[in-house]
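Input sequence (483 aa), recorded before submission:
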Amino acid sequence: MASFARPGSPVRLAAVDFGGSSGRVVAGVVDADGIRIEGLERFENVPMTLGGGLRWNADDLFDRAARAARLLQHRGGAFDALAIDSWSTDYALMADGQLLEQPFHQREPRTLDAMREVHATVGTWPLYERTGQSSLPIMTRYQLVADRDRGALECADGMLMLPDYFAHRLSGIAVTERTNATTTGLVEVHGGDWDDALIQTLRLPRGLFADIVPAGTVLGSLRREVAVATGIDAATRVVAVASHDTASAIAALPSTHDDVAYISLGTWSLVGVETPAPVITRAAMQAGFTNEGGIDDRNRFLRILPGMWILNRCLAELGEPLPGSGPRSSELLRRAADLPRPAALFDPTDPVFIAPGSMLERLRQHADLPAHPEPAHLVRLVVESLAACFARTAHEAAELSGRPVREVHIVGGGSQNTLLCRLVADYAGLPVLAGPAEATALGNLLVQARALGAIGADVGELRSLVRRGFAPVRFEPSAVPTP
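Predicted structure, token format:
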């Protein structure tokens, strides 16, 4: 690995983190002594209806992130490097290096026919055995087959996952970072490269797929025309970090040992354990677990579950503030915590809760929710149902992987929800360590610093830097309720 900084010397970095409902750019300084966050700029990520479907506004996201980075640069000085992470599965179709159309949103219900076709052609178990991936309608392989069937691939000569697309706009280099590639359902689970035979079977053009590179690859400096257009210093290097946001978050897990389960909690929740190798069993497939790449060829054995999406959509419909948004939201959570446990919980994994639309109406139909719920009762029902589901899944991950678990780490924005953290500890019967909330950005910064040579390569060293500056909050189980 080329070294761009003197070992131990500080580097100033920008982590661009795109989430399903918002984005942020975090400015941080990393050296051998720790991580210091110097600034943070947030912006909305609002999907749009275009061309008969729900899509992401990639151009607007790029512009918002560039403005945020420019503001942080103005306040604190030029960056040594910049890197992007985002949610998985969604991608940009390219032609001659340009975006062909605004990318489809993963919640757009357009893949069910494609999913049935793929399973009929290949088989559910052979797919899992080859790729290690559970089957969800949002997956890249089903989206690409749907694009094939509508003729969109005939005009495309490239496909880049969204963080790779943004990195390409910045650097001019078209590659696919490994952690995000493993979420597509098109990568060989043991070989780590594109599954050419599967791609051919699905009649997808092999030329769409860029070379896969490991997290921590320095792509180069900012393109001069981009530097002029955005105002970001032209010497800023662009790094391919663990570009799947959960992989970045787990890189920054402040754990001291391996016997932990993690919950990366945002719009989605990803619950699992870190393993040295993929877990490929029929039991894992039937339980809905998937294998995704982590930094340094580690495996993230996890289940993808609904996260704060359900609660946030309900609160928005009621005109209530989202958790963590201020005193009013804190008071709402406090009132919910004082309520008795609901008589019955609902299953957050029911596919009915994935699609856009009225979440309140779906809860009225599929849960014990009155027509006009009091907000605190609604919060308690949703949070309790999520907590029971998360705890159950953490124990399943331990059992299916053979990995003992003696504590649960919750990272991401949901780690600030103290009611949820306390209930997960109760349902799991294990201590919960909550935080850091900005784990994804911290992991992004750490992998950048390591790529530049400013800090050591060992994962334990990366995590010790997080513990030193962002100690988690501990919740002990007070009871073990019956789910």
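Checked by second reader. The mean pLDDT is 93.
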